[in-house]
Structures are given as structure tokens and as C-alpha cells.
Amino acid sequence: MFNPFLSYLMLAFEAQKVIEFRMVRLAWGGREAREEAHSMVSEKISAAIEATNTLMLGGSPETVIARYRQHVAINTKRLTAL
């Protein structure tokens, strides 16, 4: 049987790496920091809207968590590629 707690836990661990990478980027300052701050805010807003739409259309919390993990994976890949 699938334990949804594992997905929540994995999201927490994966998100910590993105937070670390973003804090380093913001600490360096400059144009890259401004772009990252703008990206961070706009991503959070669009992810919240997407999650709300998913739940309003009958999606499960597990679907929302899976999608958030995809967003986190994309950000991890982007932030480590630089």
C-alpha cells in the first residue's frame, strides 16, 4: 500500500536543496539575485493557483504534492546547471 507521507517527506527534503541554492544566489546579489527573487515569487503564485485549480476540480492532495515535486526537480536542475 502506498504511503502518502513518504511523498510529503520527500518534498520537504527536495525543497530544502532548492532553498539552499536560492539563498546562495540571493546572497551573491546583482542581476542574478533580482531575477531569482522575481522568479521565486512568480513561481510560488503560479504553483498556488495550479494547486487550487487541481483541488477545485476534484484532484487529490497527492496529485498536488506530485506536481510540486516536479516543480522542485525543475528548479534543482536549473539552479545546479549554472
| Distance from first to last alpha carbon | 39 Å
Instruction: Provide the gyration radius in Å.
Output: 14 Å
- Count of DSSP H/I helices: 3
What is the residue-averaged pLDDT?
92
Q: Give, in order, the helices and strands.
A: HHH
Overall SS class: mainly alpha
Say how many strands there are.
Answer: 0
Uncertain stretches of 5 or more adjacent residues: none
Overall, the morphology is: globular
* Share in β-strands: under 5%
Q: Major sheet: size, sense and barrel closure?
A: none
**Helix content, binned percent:** over 70%
Written overview of the protein:
The protein is mainly alpha-helical and 82 residues long. It has a domain at 47-82. Helix content is 89%, strand content 0%. The protein has three helices and no strands. The chain has helices spanning 4-28, 30-56, 61-81. It is globular and about 40 Å long.
Overview features:
mainly alpha, 89% helix, 82 residues
SSE map:
Blueprint: H1 4-28, H2 30-56, H3 61-81
Helix pairs in contact: 1-2, 1-3, 2-3
Summarize the structure.
The protein has helices at 4-28, 30-56, 61-81. By secondary structure, it is an all-alpha fold.
